[in-house]
Amino acid sequence: MALQLEKWQTLAAGFITFPTLCSEAQAAESKQPELPNVVFIYADDLGYGDLECFGAKNVKTPAVNRLADEGMRFTNAHAAAATSTPSRYGLLTGRYAWRDPGTDVAAGNAAMIIKPQQYTMADMFKSVGYATGAIGKWHLGLGAETGKQDWNAPLPAALGDLGFDYSYIMAATADRVPCVFIENGKVVNWDPDAPIYVSYKNNFEGEPTGKDNPELLWNQKPSHGHNQSIVNGISRIGYMKGGGKALWKDENIADSIASHAVSFIKEHSDEPFFLYMATNDVHVPRVPHPRHRGMSSMGLRGDAIVQFDATVETVLNTLDSLGLADNTIVILSSDNGPVVDDGYLDEAEELLDGHSPTGELRGGKYSAFEGGTRVPLIVRWPGKVESGQTSEALISQIDWLASLASLAGARIPQGAANDSHDNFASLIGEDRDGRDYVIEQAANHALSVRTKEWKYIEPSKGTPMVSWGPKIETGYLMNPQLYDMVSDPLETTNVADQYPELVKKFSDILESERTQSDTK
Length: 520
Description:
The protein is an alpha/beta fold. The chain has nine helices and 20 strands. The chain has helices at 2-31, 62-70, 84-93, 121-127, 253-267, 299-321, 400-408, 424-427, 500-515, and strands spanning 37-43, 72-74, 77-78, 131-137, 166-170, 181-183, 186-187, 197-199, 230-231, 234-235, 239-241, 273-278, 328-334, 377-380, 389-391, 395-396, 438-441, 447-450, 454-457, 481-484. The strands form five sheets. It has a ten-stranded mixed beta sheet, with helices on both faces. Strands 17-18-19-20 form a four-stranded antiparallel beta sheet, with helices on one face. Strands 3-16 form a two-stranded parallel ribbon. Strand 9 (230-231) and strand 10 (234-235) form a beta hairpin. The termini are far apart.
């Protein structure tokens, strides 16, 4: 009897203390820091000098200015490459694209360039409980095999295989077919009466092209290339048949991206989310919505920058209205440097009127010079990033995966993101020095090493100017190049002969980087 009483007393004690233990556990949980949301606003072909807060002329960008006023502006930030596909590959995988074949600028019918077995930034965020979304330009391939996608059925390999819970994307860019949006691996508004066929080799019988039917180009005409299938009065790269109701209208692309971004944010406002929002605006063909026409003095390219700013405003206002701004890191940058004439007669060159898309840097998109990869960067995180400040820290987008993994407490698998370093302290302004060096890739695969003081460009073959139309210096030279970025930030004087020891040092860095193993 005494033993039975003792047993009941013990059980009773347990019932009495259990709520207390629960309360303590709940209190401890409530004290845990809330994971911040992360929003990437990733512009396309937006130059270092294209935003008002970075010194732009002839165009107003009040929303981006607001973001800079409330956050930190970085003046020495770099994309991993001077062209779109390899730059995005590096950002999302933490791995330099030049390590892997098949990562050059992708056709619209390219197979997935990031393979499903690779670890991505979306995988990282998802592993610690984030909802993940990708909206806008993709340009990293879809489907299992190049040229063998069935665009009239769910794609067997898409962004859901790369860690994204939701995706609403353009397969490539606006100047390449297929000219349709793809949501979670399926063509949006697919039209059974107009099945979609795509080829990057041969045209389909009876389909007009910009080359053979220029009278049908009522919207924009090409200046070089871009003269194949016609959609919305604009000829593109590649051949496409069908589409019907699924075909996009270029003037509505920005609104489609913005509205789906807003919907994603609203849907996940009660949980941590990661949104990769890649805009299309500044990339050709530039077709701003009529409400943005004439809002700059630089014609369609300037108006496209205004439209990009309006998209930024929409995202910021959404975060404000939902009470999410204080717990959201907003990162704004670009995939590579700018190009003015990239294939269409839109008077972008004629209407610059003193505006320098690179901010006077040498080169531009495609180039080994600084204008190819130095990009605008703004980071806002209220209460964590000091507002209205400027940082000269040396930043590379290759580090963002590891840096944000450090923030989120995520573990990166061995061998994944092997080029990405934890540089989070620089991203939030606590470290004003940044990396010891960054590596940059030009369109011809020439690599550069950039420190805060020096820029080394390895010898490479190629023409001194981009050979297919854009008026951009490539930076390709058979001899090594070395520039003093302190006294000569515009890379005007090659001093490689004067500093052979530095040339060897930087050449050795590239050799070491090329031969390093895929382990961390």
